[in-house]
Design goal:
single chain; 658 residues; Serine Threonine Protein Phosphatase 5, Tetratricopeptide repeat; globular; membrane; SusD_RagB_dom; cell outer membrane; signal; transmembrane helix
Length: 658
């Protein structure tokens, strides 16, 4: 990896460990009973060691260490046991033969173990496998306050000072956003309170959704004005934020705020603070969608001016088929490090241990024709669901249940791969109907039984007679079990992975890339104005890279509902599915389902997969029940606040139904 940024972060944290009270400040102390007992709350707003903080800003070197501490709270997305967006959704399911799930926090979420006494992924307190976002905000406030004071850090030049302040403002906005999308109306911590603050000042309360959104958007605007256009020192600064990241994350914030969960949601009409203040605006506003669309377009225009563009796979020395070239463009948009589509990649908690752990869950058991190499394959712990496999389009670019030219009524029907299909399915091998006649993203994103899996170390140096997957019962064996549904996250495995030496290629987690921004723009514009020209333009750009016809051509020529794309409701459905396919396994769909208010449908019902223990295709390709999920409506749309925190700060109110 080119960046030394993560090493700097780790060094800064370690160097401050003896004096970490600077970021472990006294939390809100409120008397619970009229004696001497006190408890702490999650809101880290009162500093307790002013002298130690002052020492952190005596020089540029020490101040930069503190800035890296602000970065260190970024989420650990490359580890599925921390990545709520991936693990809590319906894209993947975890294999658990030894029933270890109960001891692994985030993996309990889709099994219905969330609670208010000790919440899983507690973004407020930073417990149970989540970052402490309010502590992060407090450190950002400390940094901004001190670096803004020109009597401190005297060896810091004005341009660097402004940039560092902007970075901290961006991070402060992002940590507020992490809290907002999980909890809705949250307390805003704009400044840390003085150490002698009164009890009434300390007892902060939740702020209305619209106020929270405007505050975060304002922080992103302030940051964007002073952030660098690009990272020039790639040797040491890759992973730090830029103006493109600020504009894009503001766009995502505003799309989230305009979505049904937060925009005129009747479920929360009676949700109020204890003083009667309404926390959700009960009135739907189409203007919020237009504001979001405008922010998306501004971000797109700026990104494109900086030569950020959809990734395409460069022509290799050894020629590949167009089929494989298209797939490599899709795969590498996620896992090729620092590619031209990446707007913001997370590296702060993305060291090689986490990244290899994530990729080991994507590496399949292959027909290596080499026993020693086969033994070195890793044990995947989770993999895509059968539902996710069915969600991908046909080769004609429409859903399998809409294609009038292809019959997918029996997805388990057996069929043999032909010579013309050899770049997707091993020629002469038998597999299920589901695996034939699918869009390029199906073959780029999913590893499946008898599927071809081209890698840089292809034994033939090309995509002819390359690696392919065996994924049935005794073919794999107990030493390297396949995921519980029979599919692998092929897309997330960097194509330079070395099977024999188990060598992983570290890459930044794609928190925001251009295709995400294109689809956010199409969604917001469609909701604001209906399916106008730009709605199609930006969806079709993503589809073109994926080797698909335009929305108009696909639905007109192949769908049983040929006019679907001509209505706002029809395009809404198309765009939502497009986001789920283009961004699969990147941690977006779960949060999308929440903001769309479709989680009540999508996260209820059965998780299914193939009967992976069987050896024959006739028995293997039987759909079986793995788990029955339950999503409680409307309770589960918002995270619970820990009950003890409500006792500490009696101005706080719990989210409904917890």
């Amino acid at each position: 990896m080119k960046s030394n940024f993560i090493q700097k972060i780790k060094q800064s944290v370690l160097s401050q460990t003896p004096k970490r009270n600077i970021s472990m400040v006294i939390m809100i102390l409120i008397m619970i009973v009229p004696v001497t007992s006190c408890k702490k709350s999650f809101l880290d707003v009162v500093p307790d060691n002013v002298s130690t903080i002052a020492n952190a800003f005596v020089s540029q070197t020490e101040a930069e260490k503190y800035l890296f501490t602000c970065y260190s709270y970024l989420p650990t997305e490359t580890d599925p046991t921390y990545n709520v967006g991936l693990t809590a959704g319906d894209e993947v399911w975890v294999e658990d033969p030894a029933n270890h799930i109960r001891s692994t926090n985030v993996l309990q979420l889709p099994r219905g173990f969330q609670n208010s006494s000790d919440p899983i992924a507690n973004y407020m307190n930073g417990t149970r496998d989540a970052a402490a976002n309010y502590k992060a905000i407090r450190d950002c406030n400390v940094f901004i306050e001190n670096v803004s004071d020109k009597s401190k850090v005297l060896d810091l030049d004005i341009d660097t000072r402004e940039r560092w302040i902007a970075e901290a403002q961006f991070l402060k906005a992002f940590y507020h956003f992490q809290l907002f999308r999980a909890y809705g109306p949250i307390p805003i911590i704009d400044k840390n309170l003085p150490i002698d603050a009164s009890i009434d000042d300390i007892r902060v309360k939740r702020r209305p959704v619209d106020e929270v959104v405007n505050y975060i958007a304002g922080l992103y605007d302030q940051a964007a004005a002073k952030l660098p256009l690009t990272i020039r020192n790639e040797g040491s600064e890759l992973g730090r934020v830029t103006k493109a990241a600020a504009l894009s994350m503001k766009a995502k914030l505003l799309v989230t705020a305009a979505s049904p969960l937060f925009n005129g949601n009747p479920d929360y009409n009676s949700f109020k603070n204890k003083d009667g203040e309404q926390l959700f605006n009960p009135t739907f506003s189409v203007e919020k969608w237009q504001r979001a669309a405008d922010a998306c377009k501004a971000a797109i225009d700026f990104c494109e001016s900086q030569n950020i563009r959809l990734y395409t796979f460069p022509t290799p020395t050894n020629p590949l088929s167009q089929t494989t070239m298209t797939q490599m463009g899709i795969r590498n948009a996620m896992s090729e490090k620092w590619n031209e589509e990446l707007i913001w990649g997370l590296t702060a908690n993305n060291n090689i241990n986490y990244n290899s752990f994530f990729q080991s869950m994507c590496a399949g058991q292959y027909d290596f024709n080499n026993a020693d190499a086969a033994k070195s394959a890793n044990r995947p712990l989770l993999g895509p669901t059968l539902k996710m496999a069915k969600m991908f389009y046909t080769k004609n670019g429409v859903p399998i249940n809409e294609d009038k030219t292809l019959d997918f009524s029996d997805v388990a029907q057996l069929r043999v791969g032909t010579h013309d299909e050899r770049f997707n399915i091993k020629e002469g091998e038998t597999t299920a109907r589901l695996n034939f006649d699918r869009e390029p993203r199906y073959y780029a994103d999913l590893g499946f039984d008898r599927g071809v899996w081209y890698m840089a170390n292809s034994p033939t140096k090309t995509d002819e007679d390359t690696w392919w997957m065996k994924a049935r019962g005794a073919e794999v064996g107990q030493s390297s079990p396949i995921p519980i549904a029979g599919f692998y996250m092929k897309k997330a495995l960097n194509w330079h992975y070395e099977w024999a030496t188990v060598t992983y290629i570290n890459y930044p987690w794609p928190e925001m890339r251009l295709s995400d921004l294109y689809l956010l723009y199409s969604e917001a514009l469609n909701e604001a104005q209906g399916p106008v020209a730009d709605v199609y333009t930006y969806v079709n750009r993503v589809r073109a890279r994926a080797g698909l016809p335009t929305v108009q051509d696909a639905w007109t020529n192949y769908s049983i509902n040929p006019t679907k794309y001509t209505t706002k409701e029809g395009m809404r459905s198309i765009i939502q599915r497009e986001r789920s396919l283009e961004l699969c396994f990147e941690g977006h769909r779960f949060w999308d389902l929440l903001r769309w208010k479709t989680a009540g449908v999508e996260l209820n019902g059965n998780v299914t997969g193939w009967t992976i223990s069987e050896n024959s295709p006739q028995l293997y390709y039987r759909e079986r029940l793995i788990f029955s999920r339950h999503f409680v409506i409307p309770r589960d749309y918002l995270w619970p606040i820990k009950e003890s925190d409500l006792l500490v700060n009696q101005n706080l109110v719990q989210n409904p139904n917890w």
